[in-house]
């Protein structure tokens, strides 16, 4: 079953002489439990694609379907509901609310849609235990390391059991060891709990955790690398991805 279908979407910004074609007839299918990494040169359209998928911006042409529902014609209220209930977001700089505790940060998106505070609290505690932060629930984010803060953000992204998790450079502000921990957690959520994940990254080591890597250039998907059952060893995967990116930058 497809969680996400992007059908021939295009997006142009600017007017007259200043037009930029950010997306040019992009197609993408992501199945349930699949982990897709999006890579590409700077300005190739990766963030624009994520914005179209989450309905933060509208397409000029084409369709975005989430669980077979076309979101193109959603009004603002329906788009807010879509982002709240069906999509979990993980950002480069965590975007946690500093005055709230770890537990309050994680429960917040759920309390906007579910008034059963005890039920939500229990679920958040369970998720925080899963990401290894069971003993930090009453701590404020500023007292945590970057990696710990990103774990909180992952738990927050999962609290509403979204159909799709979108992560824009989730390891961009973490060191390489913490990045590995983070990607192992996300990979585990995909494999064991069937979550569907799309990660935008510049890092071949991060993309290597995905089932499929799509490469963007000039607003188009110009290449796709299927890593599932590829038979490549871990170090070879990183090398192949890095050489494809190098090829795009030439
Ligand atoms: N709101 C906007 N207004 C005008 N131009 C935009 C807007 N958003 C994106 N663009 C342009 O569209 C193109 C694609 O941008 P986008 O941010 O999607 O690229 P990216 O691949 O995410 O880049 P990076 O890796 O540097 O973040 C760029 O040329 C960018 O300048």
TrEMBL record:
A Pfam family recorded for this sequence: ABC_tran
Coiled-coil positions: none
UniProt GO molecular function: ATP binding; ATP hydrolysis activity; transmembrane transporter activity
Keywords: ATP-binding, Nucleotide-binding, Transport
GO cellular component: membrane protein complex
Keyword ATP-binding found: yes
InterPro entries: AAA+_ATPase, ABC_transporter-like_ATP-bd, ABC_transporter-like_CS, MacB-like_ATP-bd, P-loop_NTPase
CDD domains, alphabetized: ABC_MJ0796_LolCDE_FtsE
Transport among keywords: yes
Domain ABC transporter: 4-243
The family this protein is said to belong to: Belongs to the ABC transporter superfamily.
Protein name: ABC transporter ATP-binding protein
């Amino acid at each position: 079953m497809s969680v996400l279908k992007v059908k021939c979407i295009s997006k142009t910004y600017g007017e007259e002489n200043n037009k930029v074609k950010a997306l040019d007839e992009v197609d993408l299918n992501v199945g349930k439990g699949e982990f897709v990494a999006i890579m590409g040169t700077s300005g190739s359209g990766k963030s624009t694609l994520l914005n179209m998928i989450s309905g933060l911006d509208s397409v000029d042409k084409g369709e975005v379907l989430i669980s077979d529902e076309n979101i193109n014609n959603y009004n603002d209220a329906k788009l807010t509901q879509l982002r709240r209930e069906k999509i979990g977001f993980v950002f480069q700089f965590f975007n946690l609310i500093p005055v709230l505790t770890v537990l309050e940060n994680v429960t917040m998106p759920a309390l906007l849609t579910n008034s059963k505070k005890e039920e939500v609290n229990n679920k958040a505690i369970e998720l925080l235990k899963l990401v290894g932060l069971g003993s930090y629930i009453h701590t404020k984010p500023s007292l945590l390391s970057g990696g710990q803060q990103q774990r909180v953000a992952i738990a927050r992204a999962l609290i509403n059991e979204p159909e799709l998790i979108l992560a824009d450079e989730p390891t961009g502000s973490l060191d390489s060891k913490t990045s590995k921990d983070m990607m192992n957690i996300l990979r585990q959520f995909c494999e064991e709990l069937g979550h569907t994940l799309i990660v935008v990254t510049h890092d071949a080591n991060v993309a290597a955790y995905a089932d499929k890597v799509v490469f963007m250039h000039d607003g188009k998907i110009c290449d796709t690398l299927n890593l599932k059952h590829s038979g490549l060893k871990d170090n070879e995967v990183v090398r192949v991805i890095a050489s494809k990116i190098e090829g795009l930058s030439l």
